[in-house]
Design goal:
The chain is mainly alpha-helical. It folds into two domains: about 110 residues, no CATH class; about 55 residues, no CATH class. It has seven helices and three strands. A three-stranded antiparallel sheet has the order 2-1-3, with helices on both faces. A hairpin with a 2-residue loop joins strand 1 and strand 2. Helix 1 packs parallel to helix 3 and helix 4 runs antiparallel to helix 5. The longest helix has about 45 residues. It is elongated, with a radius of gyration of 31 Å.
Length: about 180
């Protein structure tokens, strides 16, 4: 008799725990969806500063992949590009298999800058072009000019006209004088 009562008690206890867990899960889901709805409205109506302020109050520990996608899109809508970059990196770290998050991560990650040393003759040609522009640029304000080794090759009102005026644009310094 004792075993049967213990079994019934344990069974009731498990059922109650399941119910509490389900309620807790649904409450957490509603809270998460409510905060995402609120931040979406903030992104649409109040702008970047308000979005960033509200973003600080959101607990992202239970975020799913689609939650990260949504909040990144809201950040972009609000103009919070740095926050969007940070959020997508956080989401991609949690869900590296997510194709949409991977795509957003690739698009929003900082650019990789690679520099190479220009040959001495190229550096000298740019220096000569800058010297020419400093001396003669005032005469060509609003025009496009083509320079080679600090010498004027052609000038025109538009970029297309300038390209038509030169035979071979290779090695030329082309710029619009402002």
């Amino acid at each position: 008799m004792v075993l049967i009562e213990d079994y019934r008690f344990m069974r009731r206890r498990r059922i109650v725990r399941r119910m509490l867990n389900l309620d807790l899960r649904s409450i957490l889901a509603e809270m998460r969806m409510g905060s995402l709805y609120d931040i979406r409205e903030t992104a649409r109506t109040r702008g970047e500063a308000a979005f960033l302020e509200e973003l600080e109050d959101i607990d992202r520990s239970g975020f799913r992949e689609r939650d990260y996608e949504a909040i990144v899109n809201h950040a972009l809508q609000a103009g919070a590009f740095v926050a969007a970059e940070r959020l997508v990196a956080e989401g991609y770290h949690c869900y590296p298999e997510g194709q949409r998050l991977r795509h957003l991560f690739e698009v929003l990650r900082p650019p990789v800058v690679r520099s190479t040393e220009a040959p001495a003759e190229d550096r000298e040609a740019v220096r000569a072009a800058n010297d020419w522009l400093f001396e003669h640029g005032a005469d060509y304000v609003g025009k496009w000019v083509a320079l080679r080794a600090g010498q004027l090759v052609a000038s025109a009102a538009t970029h297309e006209e300038l390209l038509d005026a030169v035979d071979d644009p290779a090695g030329l310094f082309l710029t619009r004088v402002a």
